[in-house]
(S)-2-hydroxy-acid oxidase
Amino acid sequence: MTATDASTQAEIPPARPTRPPDGTAPTGTDPSPFVSFTSADRFATVGEIYEEARRALPPQVWDFLDGGSGGEQTLRANLSSFERWSVLPRLMTGAGEPDLACAFLGIELSMPVLTSPFGADRLLHRDGQLAVARANAKAGVASIVPEAGSYSWEEVATAAPGAARMAQLHPMGNPANFAAMLRRAAAAGFSALCLTLDCPTAGWRERNMRNRFDVAVDVVSGNYPHAGPADLADTLGQLFVRREPIWTWDELAGRMADSPLPWMAKGILTGSDAEAAVLAGAAAVLVSNHGGRQLDTVPAALDQLPEVVAAVGGRVPIALDSGIRRGSDVVKALALGADVVVIGRAAAMALAAGGEEGVGRLHELLREEISTTIKLLGASGVDELTDTMIRPSAVSRW
Ligand SMILES: Cc1cc2nc3c(=O)[nH]c(=O)nc-3n(C[C@H](O)[C@H](O)[C@H](O)COP(=O)(O)O)c2cc1C
């Protein structure tokens, strides 16, 4: 029974204070005993955060953020994949208030969510990843801080040491710079690394082409403030120059052998690459298609999750990104075997819509929806979510 159903039953004494007949929030000091769907907050839903981000950003920056690569088949698949799975509740389970806390690579989280390493962050809000990390620290969420960000790893770590726990790096470019960056991340206080493996060159971004839009070097060079374009080609390598060969798993394993920090392999979509990543020494894998921004027409990350879970066989923890837009998406990813999710555009949109406050509000909405979904499923926490609670939607079996 929903709060609204309850309030219409004649035999139940009216709540104190009663909701005015026009449906607006009660004004008395007595709190309503019902779940309230009215909020004094500027953003009542994640959808409103998106609408505000669209209003706030210049159209070409909106396209850069919202868009994908090629014909955007993968971008669309990421979103529709969540609707191809249905959850199955268990009734009368005796479950208590859902416990959302967990740990990932030794990082304590108040809910199973990290924010993604999205670079060029100052295009979205002047405080970029500083604001994201501050909001994350307040919410008990961790940041994956990008190499190609507008602020340096150190600046973000200083702004919010409790949240800036993973540093993201592209395994490409000059190996000496790569080795120096591994040491630099450890010195800045990060506890793990995220290596982006699916980005040996930038994706085919048609919205940017149509808009004649290039990201300015200064918004991606927070970690390399003194580097000119030629030096950046050495560090962010093929993102800019597109000439170097892609590193091999063996080269990666060799260059990570002395890493002071454990690392997560970002961009895994197949069981065989998950296996290769684990053999190369990855301490976690992130099932991801880069939010549909790299190779277009690859499958939705969620649809590849069961294959990766089977290949990994519990040897390392698994994260998932690409398409998470609401709390029930998080629950579905966990039920299919992810340990945590990583949110990209949702966090970036919240940053654009309202800076630190916007990201904080997004976390509140995610947390509440995750909690509500878990409770309605009859579970008592994220640990209890399993594949017995999810199955392909009827429509996807036709
Ligand atoms: C504006 C923007 C910039 C990004 N920059 C990076 C980056 O520098 N490095 C990286 O590994 N991923 C980058 N990503 C990809 C995200 O880390 C993440 O994989 C993706 O956004 C997840 O999908 P979602 O947006 O559907 O949540 C970027 C994503 C966006 C939207």
